């Protein structure tokens, strides 16, 4: 117990431990995100989705991972072996490296850099190399074009997303992730309320950065087979896949931290306690959620056609009950532990919601044309983001210099920014599509 | 704390390598990259001195140098693109249209 | 003549002006319709005829002792000082001036009158020919030139007209230039005339050299002032040279050869130029310069002999010709011989008189012959004619009248003029008279031979020609009638005293003739022997009738006799028939020699002038240019290039630096940097020490 | 101790990859090695406690400029260029001269070794980013603006240059 408080433990052991956990869990997480994606897609398309492997295809990710791992590893003859080998590793490595600065909770963070946010941006910007070099190394026209497209796309939307982030940063006043969340705690409100436009910009930008529909030009099957991944197969392809989903988690985490209040639970300033205890009322929420889930599963159990499925469904219900128990038990643990567990829960919940939005968009919107993509990025998002930053700064000046309450000030500026957005949209609609040539000179 | 000579030597090495690259490589893009390397060497010096003087001015200048590098890269690469479009080459010793 | 001249004399220049004007217009005649052309040209000639008539009658109105109207238009050659033979200074000057005196007055009347008739005739005759405007343009130009010749008051102006008529004659003989014979004939006429013109020109020069003037009205005073005695060699030379010119123009031996060929031209041309007017220019010129001739008895003798010889010679050839126009041509030559005979015996007035009557009847003969040819649609050979009297009566009667006139039947015009000449000749020399007398008989013979072969006997006309024989149109007949009347009455203007007349025409011309003293004595003596003169007339009449009867006997009564006669004469016939081979002789003597000379000159030109001179010069130039090219290339340019090369070489190291490669420039920068640092170390080292 | 280890690690990485960058035949490899060198430089910045500059180095240099480089390389890359001679005629002279230059600078260090009396490095204040921001927006405002104008001009120039029909 003494050892747990020693600085050596906090400085060297814990980060390594957290890192190990992340590296171990992330592939599983990515696999289940894929499963969820397929399920959600099936649901939205009135299908069932994977049902064979395990009940409701719960074991599908495992099977896919096994298949990919044992598949033959093909390297094209004319490929640049060194880079061909390096590219996927780079993309995955950079994605994983970004997790170092992500606070999954008040304690669950590898390293709290005082430039954490910029660090994450920098690392994720390095992710481009994974794509570009891989596309070039595989020495194929499809790959190269995909790579060039993604390079142009990423460079363009990084700017927009970064400016969207800045608008939140000016409210946070720090680059350290912890400090940002702390700032939201202090203000008692999520920054999405202050800079909704910035959140929207970051949302779009992050979708584009992760090459997800409707911005999945680099791997547009109908045009480029599979884009930069055309020549990849088996394990390397799995690495790319892993990197992509890891990136999704990263951008989701950044959005959560900046706009959605990080690990904070809703209504953090509401401090009523259960009578006689030091337990706040709202801290019961996770337990209730898990219990509800368990009840839902139990209700589904009898409808399962096969016996084994009944059993598995029951098992899931049991798992939910166990988790509910954990949440409940946490309430009685020492505050650090409790905050860690609950924070992780809320954080992951918000990340899940954000990723769900990603899936939602993917199944809702048709794919953009490249010049439309570029026009949107350069002629709509970036100017709007600049205006938005100015608006946020104006709001801060209003609130801090002139004593106006921050919320109305932010709302006013946001409204003004939205007006600008409307004007820009109409203008961008009219404008000729020459920007694509300039920015995406690749194709 | 490390003596500053280490940083100076490092930057000197990088600088020399960069100079060699600029002077000897035929590929214009490699020349530009070597120039970037030289600027980096300079940056190392600046940051090291700012560290040792305990003031951020050196870093400011490093930032300006990076800005300059960005501008130089953008324009230089644009020129290379235009030239390649017209001459189908990126070799420096084939760009001798300014001769006499 | 300080008294103001009457209008027509004062504006005598109008007479040649009208034809000149229309000739100039005819340059653009291709655009004009034939009717317009006829109206213009004939009208202009008609106007000039009226003017000349007016001028003539105003001349008659002048006092007899001073019937000379000189009109000075403008100076041509102002005054060129030179030394005469006699050594004294003189000024050669010629001007455009016209002199109207009885001689030129008569001449312009003849020229414009006959010319007018022939123009009128040409309207019908040339109506179907191409180049209508061209023909009339030439004709008008000829009228102008002839009038200049006649009216000119000095030899130079006369020479202008002289050459002008020669040119027009050439142009009109070669009117059918697409026929080689026509163009050859034109050239022949032109060249032969050149010989005579050369003589004439020399004569003009010699005149100005000897007399110091070329104006007619100054010649006689100059002669008187020069105290030239008769037979002066210089004067004789002048006279002979003039006569050479006259021979050329008037077709006398030995220069007659061009006239028969000149018949290639259209018939009106033959009538106007080669019968009536131009060929008589020689006679006119001799008459105009009679003052000189009368001081040169030798020349006069030469003129007389040549005239007589030409007369009988041409007549002999006329007998055997079968081409109707050729016959007329030889008769023209022989008549011209008569005129020169007259001049040669001093009867200049008789010559002019015969000139006038000859103009009438010979013009008429030609026009009638033209009418015949026209009727026979181009046939000229008399052997293909005959028995045309009924078919074309008007032509026949007019032709008969003209034939009677030329044959010299009393009282036609020809009789009076010819007997006047014969009389004068008899006064001069018996043999000359004998030749003329015999010639008159031959004339009658061959002229009636022509008439009989053409109009009587049985027809020998080709059948396709036979059935469209037709009388000529009015425009052709009217001139015939008018000329016929003139042929009858033209001679009456000088009815001889012996027949109770007063030869007014002769006396009218007297003032022009310088009558030397002895001649006047002769005249007084000649008046005494009227009986002799009358006898001469009767003799010639008898001979003429004999000739006519002979012709009738041979060509009507017993046609076969013609061939017999030809056989009988044999070689002589051939000789005459081939015109004594004179053309061949001339060819052998002169033409081919001239050709050889031409070839020789041509080869000289080719080989020496072109070959040696021009090509040699060209070769030399090329050679020199080669040299200068070598010089330019190797010395001039070479030096320049050498300088450039030197600069190039010297600039080599600099150029090594300036290779345009950015990296080498960087290298230079680095070198400079290293150098600077080295210098810095040097400083530091020295500072330490 | 750890500090020194980090420095030597990064320095070695930087120098090695720099040499590789200059010598590689394949341009893309050269670019990759340059990226490595830049990352190593960034590490050295971090080791010098210039966190902001560390991030800026990565974002701007690695994430921006080098992406642009690779972009252009892929646009103009010619396979034939792989088989060409990679060094120009003056390589030996130039190399020797560059080395001489380096040696001279080294000599300069040696000559001025006495004048460099820095002693131990003073501790930077922890809030490096704020400090940089303060300096940038107060003391170095004008240069900052000039730099922004420079960037604007460079952007316009690059666009004009890279347009299809110049």
Description:
The complex is a heterotetramer of chains A (443), B (100), C (689) and D (166). Chain A is built from 16 helices and no strands. With 443 residues, chain A is mainly α. Chain C is mainly alpha-helical and 689 residues long. A two-stranded antiparallel ribbon of chain C has the order 1-2. In chain C, a hairpin with a 5-residue loop joins β1 (69-83) and β2 (89-100). Chain C is elongated. Chain D has 166 residues and is an all-alpha fold.
Distance between the termini of chain C: 136 Å
- CATH class placement of the largest domain in chain D: Mainly Alpha
SS element count, helices of chain C: 29
Uncertain stretches of chain D: none
Major sheet details of chain D: none
CATH superfamily of the largest domain in chain D: NADH-ubiquinone/plastoquinone oxidoreductase chain 6, subunit NuoJ
Tally of structural domains of chain D: 2
Largest interface: B-D, 70 and 85 residues
Give the overall form of chain D. globular
Low-confidence stretches of chain C: 524-528
Q: Which topology of the largest domain in chain D does CATH recognise?
A: Four Helix Bundle (Hemerythrin (Met), subunit A)
Cα gyration radius of chain C (Å): 38 Å
The quaternary organization reads as heterotetramer
Helix content of chain D: over 70%
> Over the alpha carbons, how many angstroms does the gyration radius of chain D reach?
20 Å
Summarize the structure.
The complex is a heterotetramer of chains A (443), B (100), C (689) and D (166). By secondary structure, chain B is mostly helical. Chain B is built from three helices and no strands.
Strand-helix topology:
The complex is a heterotetramer of chains A (443), B (100), C (689) and D (166).
Chain A: H1 7-44, H2 60-70, H3 81-98, H4 116-137, H5 141-172, H6 177-187, H7 191-194, H8 196-209, H9 221-224, H10 234-259, H11 285-300, H12 307-332, H13 335-364, H14 370-401, H15 406-430, H16 435-439
Helix pairs in contact in A: 1-2, 1-10, 1-13, 2-10, 3-4, 3-10, 4-5, 4-10, 5-8, 5-14, 8-10, 8-14, 10-13, 11-12, 12-13, 14-15
Chain B: H1 4-24, H2 28-53, H3 57-87
Helix pairs in contact in B: 1-2, 2-3
Chain D: H1 2-23, H2 27-47, H3 51-76, H4 79-83, H5 91-111, H6 128-139, H7 141-162
Helix pairs in contact in D: 1-2, 2-3
Structural descriptors:
heterotetramer; A: 443 residues; mainly alpha; 3 domains; disordered C terminus; C: 689 residues; two-stranded antiparallel ribbon; 29 helices; elongated
């Amino acid at each position: 117990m003494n050892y747990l408080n020693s600085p050596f433990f906090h400085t060297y052991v814990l980060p390594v431990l957290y890192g190990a956990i992340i590296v171990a869990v992330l592939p599983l997480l990515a696999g289940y995100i894929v499963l969820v994606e397929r399920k959600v897609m099936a649901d939205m398309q009135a299908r069932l989705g994977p049902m064979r492997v395990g009940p409701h295809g719960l074991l599908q990710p495992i099977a896919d991972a096994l298949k990919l791992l044992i598949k033959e590893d093909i390297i094209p003859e004319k490929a640049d072996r060194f880079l061909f080998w390096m590219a996927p590793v780079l993309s995955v490595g950079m994605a994983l490296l970004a997790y170092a600065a992500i606070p999954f909770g008040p304690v669950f963070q590898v390293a709290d850099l005082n430039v954490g946010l910029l660090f994450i941006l920098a690392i994720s910007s390095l992710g481009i190399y994974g794509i570009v070099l891989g596309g070039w190394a595989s020495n194929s026209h499809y790959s190269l074009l995909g790579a060039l497209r993604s390079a142009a796309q990423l460079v363009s939307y990084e700017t927009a997303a970064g400016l969207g982030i800045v608008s939140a940063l000016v409210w946070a006043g720090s680059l350290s992730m912890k400090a940002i969340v702390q700032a939201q705690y202090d203000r008692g409100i999520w920054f999405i309320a202050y800079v909704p436009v910035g959140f929207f910009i970051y949302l779009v930008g992050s979708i584009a950065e992760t090459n997800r529909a409707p911005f999945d030009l680099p791997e547009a099957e109908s045009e480029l087979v599979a884009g930069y991944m055309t020549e990849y197969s088996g394990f390397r392809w799995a690495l790319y896949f892993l990197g992509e989903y890891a990136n999704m988690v990263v951008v989701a985490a950044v959005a959560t931290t900046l706009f959605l209040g990080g690990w904070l639970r809703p209504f953090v300033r509401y401090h009523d306690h259960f009578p006689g205890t030091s337990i706040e009322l709202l801290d019961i929420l996770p337990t209730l959620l898990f219990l509800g889930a368990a009840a839902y599963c139990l209700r589904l159990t009898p409808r399962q056609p096969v016996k084994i499925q009944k059993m598995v469904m029951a098992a899931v219900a049991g798992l939910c009950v166990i988790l509910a128990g954990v949440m409940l038990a946490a309430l009685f643990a020492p505050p650090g532990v409790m905050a860690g567990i609950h924070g992780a829960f809320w954080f992951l919940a918000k990340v899940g919601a954000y990723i769900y939005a990603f899936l939602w968009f993917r199944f809702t919107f048709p794919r953009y044309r490249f010049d439309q993509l570029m026009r949107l990025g350069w002629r709509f998002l970036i100017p709007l983001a600049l205006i938005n930053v100015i608006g946020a700064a104006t709001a801060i000046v209003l609130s801090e210099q002139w004593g106006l309450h921050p919320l109305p000030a932010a709302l006013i500026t946001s409204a003004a920014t939205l007006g600008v957005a409307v004007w820009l949209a109409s203008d961008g609609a009219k404008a000729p599509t020459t920007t694509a040539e300039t920015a995406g000179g690749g194709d | 704390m490390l003596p500053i000579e280490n940083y100076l030597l490092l930057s000197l090495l990088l600088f020399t390598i960069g100079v060699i690259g600029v002077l000897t490589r035929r590929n214009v893009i490699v020349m530009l990259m070597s120039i970037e390397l030289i600027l980096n060497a300079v940056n190392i010096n600046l940051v090291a001195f700012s560290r040792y003087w305990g003031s951020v001015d050196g870093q400011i200048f490093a930032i300006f140098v990076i800005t300059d590098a960005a501008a130089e890269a953008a324009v230089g690469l644009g020129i290379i693109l235009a030239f390649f479009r017209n001459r189908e080459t990126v070799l420096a010793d084939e760009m001798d249209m300014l001769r006499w | 003549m300080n008294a103001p001249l009457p209008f027509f004399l004062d504006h005598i220049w109008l007479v040649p002006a009208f034809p000149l004007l229309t000739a100039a217009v005819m340059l653009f005649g291709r655009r004009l319709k034939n009717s317009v052309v006829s109206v213009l040209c004939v009208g202009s000639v008609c106007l000039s005829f009226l003017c000349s008539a007016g001028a003539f009658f105003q001349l008659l109105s002048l006092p007899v002792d001073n019937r000379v109207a000189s009109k000075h238009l403008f100076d041509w050659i102002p005054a060129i000082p030179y030394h005469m033979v006699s050594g004294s200074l003189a000024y050669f000057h010629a001007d455009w001036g016209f002199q109207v005196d009885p001689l030129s007055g008569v001449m312009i009347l003849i020229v414009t009158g006959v010319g007018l008739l022939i123009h009128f005739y040409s309207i019908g005759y040339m109506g179907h020919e191409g180049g209508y405007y061209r023909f009339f343009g030439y004709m008008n130009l000829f009228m102008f030139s002839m009038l200049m010749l006649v009216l000119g008051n000095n030899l130079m102006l006369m020479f202008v007209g002289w050459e002008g008529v020669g040119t027009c004659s050439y142009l009109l003989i070669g009117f059918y230039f697409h026929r080689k014979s026509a163009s050859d004939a034109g050239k022949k006429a032109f060249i032969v005339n050149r010989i005579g013109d050369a003589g004439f020109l020399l004569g003009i020069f010699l005149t100005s050299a000897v007399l110091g003037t070329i104006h007619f009205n100054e010649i006689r005073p100059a002669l008187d002032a020069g105290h030239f005695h008769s037979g002066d060699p210089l004067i004789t030379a002048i006279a002979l040279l003039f006569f050479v010119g006259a021979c050329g123009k008037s077709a006398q031996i030995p220069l007659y050869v061009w006239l028969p060929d000149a018949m290639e031209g259209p018939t009106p041309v033959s009538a106007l130029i080669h019968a009536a007017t131009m060929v008589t220019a020689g006679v006119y010129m001799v008459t105009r310069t009679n003052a000189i001739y009368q001081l040169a008895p030798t020349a006069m003798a030469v003129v007389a002999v040549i005239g007589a010889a030409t007369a009988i010679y041409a007549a002999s050839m006329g007998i055997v010709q079968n081409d109707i126009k050729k016959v007329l041509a030889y008769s023209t030559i022989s008549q011209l011989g008569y005129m020169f005979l007259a001049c040669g015996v001093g009867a200049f007035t008789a010559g002019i008189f015969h000139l006038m009557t000859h103009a009438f009847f010979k013009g008429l003969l030609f026009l009638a012959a033209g009418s015949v040819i026209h009727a026979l649609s181009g046939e000229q050979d008399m052997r293909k004619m005959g028995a045309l009297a009924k078919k074309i009566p008007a032509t026949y009667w007019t032709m008969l009248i003209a034939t009677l006139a030329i044959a010299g039947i009393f009282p036609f015009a020809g009789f009076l003029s010819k007997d006047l000449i014969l009389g004068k000749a008899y006064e001069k020399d018996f043999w000359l008279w004998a030749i003329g007398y015999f010639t008159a008989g031959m004339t009658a013979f061959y002229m009636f031979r022509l008439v009989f072969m053409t109009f009587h006997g049985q027809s020998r006309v080709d059948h396709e020609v036979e059935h469209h024989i037709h009388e000529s149109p009015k425009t052709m007949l009217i001139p015939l009638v008018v000329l016929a009347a003139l042929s009858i009455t033209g001679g009456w203007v000088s009815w001889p005293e012996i027949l109770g007349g007063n030869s007014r025409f002769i006396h009218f011309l007297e003032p022009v003739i310088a009558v030397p003293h002895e001649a006047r004595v002769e005249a007084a003596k000649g008046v005494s022997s009227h009986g002799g003169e009358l006898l001469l007339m009767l003799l010639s009449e008898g001979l003429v009738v004999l000739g006519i009867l002979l012709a009738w006997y041979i060509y009507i009564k017993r046609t076969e006799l013609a061939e017999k006669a030809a056989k009988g004469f044999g070689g002589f016939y051939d000789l005459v028939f081939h015109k004594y081979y004179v053309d061949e002789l001339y060819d052998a003597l002169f033409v081919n020699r001239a050709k050889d000379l031409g070839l020789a000159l041509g080869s000289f030109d080719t080989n020496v002038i072109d070959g040696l001179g021009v090509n040699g010069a060209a070769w030399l130039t090329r050679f020199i240019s080669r040299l200068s090219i070598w010089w330019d290339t190797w010395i001039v340019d070479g030096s320049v290039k050498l300088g450039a090369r030197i600069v190039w070489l010297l600039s080599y190291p600099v150029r090594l630096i300036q290779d345009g490669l950015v990296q080498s420039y960087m290298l230079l920068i680095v070198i400079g940097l290293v150098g600077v640092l080295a210098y810095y170390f040097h400083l530091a080292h020295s500072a330490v020490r | 101790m750890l500090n020194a280890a980090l420095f030597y690690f990064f320095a070695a990485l930087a120098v090695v990859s720099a040499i590789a960058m200059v010598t590689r035949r394949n341009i893309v490899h050269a670019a990759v090695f340059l990226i490595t060198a830049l990352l190593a430089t960034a590490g050295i910045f971090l080791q010098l406690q210039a966190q902001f500059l560390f991030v800026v180095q990565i974002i701007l240099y690695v994430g921006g400029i080098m992406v642009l480089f690779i972009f252009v390389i892929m646009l103009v890359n010619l396979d034939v260029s792989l088989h060409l001679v990679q060094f120009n005629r003056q390589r030996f002279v130039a190399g020797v001269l560059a080395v001489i230059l380096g040696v001279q600078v080294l000599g300069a260090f040696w000559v001025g070794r006495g004048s460099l009396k820095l002693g131990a490095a003073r501790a930077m204040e922890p809030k490096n980013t704020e400090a940089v921001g303060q300096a940038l927006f107060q003391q170095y405002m004008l240069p900052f603006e000039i730099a922004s104008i420079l960037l604007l001009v460079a952007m316009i120039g690059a666009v004009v240059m890279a347009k299809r029909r110049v």
